[in-house]
Amino acid sequence: KAFLPNAFTPNGDGLNDAFGIDNPYVMTNFISLEVFDRWGSLLFFTDDPFQRWDGAFRGQLLNPGVLLFRVR
């Protein structure tokens, strides 16, 4: 099974600093991971199951808030 965290803290302390799939090796049919803000704007996209999101958009860390993600 693959899991994604329900929260993360991209503050540079080395703990939970990135968001992504915890065991990408089990994602044999992986298409993409997308992260959206509450208005539906795409903040992050990857088609690599090993890539993780650092919490930034256009080089700037985002303020804490509720975000949506989709794994296909």
Please characterize this protein's 3D structure.
With 72 residues, this protein is an all-beta fold. The chain has no helices and five strands. The protein has a three-stranded antiparallel β-sheet with strand order 2-1-5, with no helix packed on it. The chain is globular and about 35 Å long. The two termini are 15 Å apart.
Provide mean pLDDT, rounded.
Answer: 93
Rg for CA atoms: 12 Å
Strand order of the largest sheet: 2-1-5
- Please write the string of helix (H) and strand (E) elements: EEEEE
The overall strand count is 5
Number of helices: 0
**Biggest sheet overview:** 3 strands, antiparallel
- SS-derived structural category: mainly beta
- Percent strand: 15-25%
Low-pLDDT runs of 5+ residues are none
Distance between the termini: 15 Å
General shape: globular
Describe the secondary structure blueprint for this structure.
Elements: E1 33-36, E2 42-46, E3 56-57, E4 60-61, E5 68-71
Antiparallel strand pairs: 1-2, 1-5, 3-4
How would you concisely characterize the structure shown here?
The chain is mostly beta strands and 72 residues long. The chain is 0% helix and 24% strand.
Which key phrases capture this entry?
two-stranded antiparallel ribbon, 72 residues, mainly beta, three-stranded antiparallel sheet, 5 strands
